[in-house]
Model the fold of this input.
Amino acid sequence: MRVGAVVTKKDDFNISMRKDDILNKILMLLLKALYEQVDVIVFPGLLGCFFNNDREYVESLLRLSIDFRSLIICPGSYFEILNGRKYHSSCIIQNGRILLRQRQIYLSRWERDANLSRGDDISFVNICGFKTAIIISTDIFYPQVSRYIAMSGADLVLSPVAVRKQKQSFNISPLWENVQQNLFFGVESGFKGSFKNMDFNSLSLIHGPLEMTERENGILEIERNNDCKLITANLDNEKRKNAIKKFDVLSKLNIKLYEDMFK
Amino acid sequence: MEVGIGSFFEAFLKIKLNIKKIDKYLNKITYDKKIGRKSGILSVACVQRSVKKVKSVEEYIDILHRFVREAREAGCDIIVFPEYNFLDFYGIIPFSDKISSLFIKNISNENLKFEIEDFKKELYFFELDEKAKKRELSSSKGEDKTIFNILYGVAYPIQRALEHIMCFLAARYDIYIYTGTYLLREEGKLYNCGSLISRDGEILGRQKKLHLTDFEEVLNLSRGDKLYCYDTDIGRIACPICMDATYFETFKIARNLGCDIVVLPIANNEEYNFYRSLRGIWSRVQESHVYGVKSTLNGNILGVKFTGKAGIFAPASLTEKGDGIVNLSKNYEGDSLVIGSLDVERLKAERVEAEYYGDKNENFERDYYLKTYL
Done:
């Protein structure tokens, strides 16, 4: 399976842009994904927040997806309003249909201040034989989310991310840490720019278990300082399973030890 | 027959690592006067050391003493020794070449039968006492128990000597010492275990390794099932071991217990790789917002190569370069003492202010154990 993560530059997407201009940019990225023969594309976190509401954004993407029948799209994240509550959410769509909906499980400080609500569970969908889940932004900082996903047998995680500007460490993200302790694939698209007077600066990376990557760094592809708008990688599940044989983290869990972890 | 092998080695090491002999040497060493502590600053030292086959316990004491003295002279409050901190005693053990050969074949799963029989014939040239022969030992799994029984035999004399030396040095230098790990034998099982010793030279507790490597499973070691925390005048400390840091759960439990400092001895039997080392304690420190103090053993012994950089880690926002590193050894081989200052009050304040830490989701967490692990 071939996957792509959208790479943004600072303020590539911003609140002052016309909605049609944003949709045109998205369309160009979908065409690029098609050209690159990508099966799955992930857009960055908060992208849908530049529309009037989640419904407007998701419906626009659903319409666009009809022209890209086989392409599976994670349209980034947005604020979902439901029954008077606001969630940080994402989804996976294909050919005019929503295959999976996901709400963020944990909240950052600014999200708590903005009175967002938390999701309760995690959904899975089968994409080209890969059991797939979404980890939204803040949830990459909470390793229990990734562990639950891994223990459910997931092969692939799609991750639209918008992390507030902070000191960067070694050009890796918390999703890298989660991939290495769970050994699934991770496709992460990071938002860079401003939203509600806050600066965000997240990278786009495609992660795999360290043992299967060429430079033994756990990175299948990473954004570089060029004009590339989409990074891509082939995900070889057999190669991943062979890597797990070399370092089978989950087989050595000490389950009895964890019994009271959340009590 | 198996029983006697371990007993032979135990009897031998009890002589070589005799406590009176150790005390005699410890009391002969010239110590500096107690060095004053730096007020208000918490300083930690982690040992990176190359394993060395010693010819005597005195030589081993000199190695440990040099590190402790250096740490205290630098004003450190705690010094952390690495995993498998006893492998130097391999130089004392008889038939070491034979054992090495068995050991290598054991860990590479080759057929040992022929060589073991040969070894036993040679070994039983010595007279073993009847009591030792009758004692029942068993490993938890595995067909051949020779290596296990040798380790079982050497475990207690080594633990006793190591703890005795460290207790003495801790009291003499007024410093907390994490002993590094040794093999602990308990009810017929062997554990990879380390002790934390107070400034008064008292053992505060022993922590067994909670997650074993393939290598340790082949050796038939058993794992612990509880993480302990220790209250000290420098903060609450947990002491998991090496592979335990591969699991976020270990550090989550340490935080639940209120720990601010996690001590982690390691001995990685693989070539050094920067990213491989990042997926251990560095990652866990970033997730759990604690200080991490990692000591390492390196060098070649028993046909196994160990590498690793000792280091002190903190949440990225607390470090100057934003890389989560307070101090890190320059090389992954050789001896060095890595020293750094920790500010537990600042760490606590950082947790309160952290953007991506400390949230709870009761609905998601309610049945987490059941839905995730069972």
Summary: The two ends of chain A are 40 Å apart (CA to CA). The longest helix of chain A spans residues 19-35.
